[in-house]
Amino acid sequence: MENSLVDEIRSLCGTYPEVHEHIDGFGHTSFRVKDKPFVIIGEENNLSLSIKTLPTTQEILLEQQGYTKAPYIGRHGWVLVETEEVGWQAIVALIHEGYLRVAPKKLANQLRNG
Fold first, then answer.
1. In contact, 41 and 47? CB cutoff 8 Å
2. How far, in Å, are 29, 74, 113 from residue 39 at the CA level?
3. What pLDDT sits at residue 100?
4. Would you say 98 and 19 are in contact if contact means Cβ atoms under 8 Å apart?
5. CB burial class (10 A; 0-12, 13-18, 19+) of residue 97?
6. Which of 46, 47, 43, 87 is nearest to 67 (CA)?
7. pTM of the predicted model, to two decimals?
């Protein structure tokens, strides 16, 4: 994943209400609302993108090319996205769903009605 894609993800996540960026001790960058992550960018051997989804969305995505269950957190609805295969429009939609999944109802409704 290129730095430009990371910058695009950062810019997109920053458009959602009350989102902040957090870097943990392992060097993973997460985007959070009320301290609940909905996007995690990992930097182990190469950059990776994980997004929080609904369990039903996760099931559908895992049947498609470009998605795998995220290590360690996959059982909680997280998918690992192969950005080269999936495309930007799918990433935008998944980030939107991820935000709605973890945001407090007030913020989620504000976004839906906004």
1. yes
2. 8, 13, 23
3. 96
4. no
5. middle
6. 87
7. 0.92
